[in-house]
Amino acid sequence: MYKEEFIDFMIESDVLKFGEFTLKSGRKSPFFMNAGAYVTGSQLTRLGEYYAKAIHETYGDDFDVLFGPAYKGIPLAVVTAMAYSKLYGKEIKYCCDRKEVKDHGADKGGLLGYKLQDGDKVVMIEDVTTSGKSMEETVPKVKGAADVTILGLMVSLNRMEVGLGGKMSALDEIKEKYGFEANAIVTMKEVVDYLYNKECKGRIVIDDKIKSAIDAYYDEYGVK
Description:
- With 224 residues, this protein is of the alpha/beta class.
- It has helices at residues 2-12, 41-59, 73-88, 133-145, 170-178, 188-195, 208-221, and strands at 16-22, 28-33, 65-68, 93-102, 109-113, 121-125, 128-129, 149-158, 181-187, 199-200, 203-204.
- Helices cover 40% and strands 27% of the residues.
- Helix 2 (41-59) packs across helix 3 (73-88).
């Protein structure tokens, strides 16, 4: 089961941590996920394969481009395109945005990688979506580059908390606002169910104290 493997992989790679963290949104969270902690060649190879499996299972193979928002989405798009070729024999192109528009050379503009074309089918790829704010910047760039269809977004972890609107999850808000599906390799519920009182790397990652903190967090910020 690749979902359980992926949860173990996040813990082994020190990407998913438990404790007390202040998020970009200002929320105090008992867990934190940092995809920037995947730093070795073997970690990135495995990460791309987990994303490719989840995208294949969720969206199928009828798409052309993986779009990764800068900055963390850039390596995600690259390693997942490589994994797609290896696992499914399909050539998927990658495209990313630049934080600063390049004004010189043959590849000037706001995007790098593949040049989006009218009719392309695109899957967006990100590390984690807490509030959905990044899509506000990214979707207009993608739609503005060509007449493309965005099939959906894949993130590694669905934090399962309310988004900017305060009523539904960030992933559900994205669907309502932009009209495409937003999915994750795993949800935080799957993580907690799998790791609670389970020994991982010689220790219990989610003990009763951490579980209580997570429950309290979801009482306040979780999707009702």
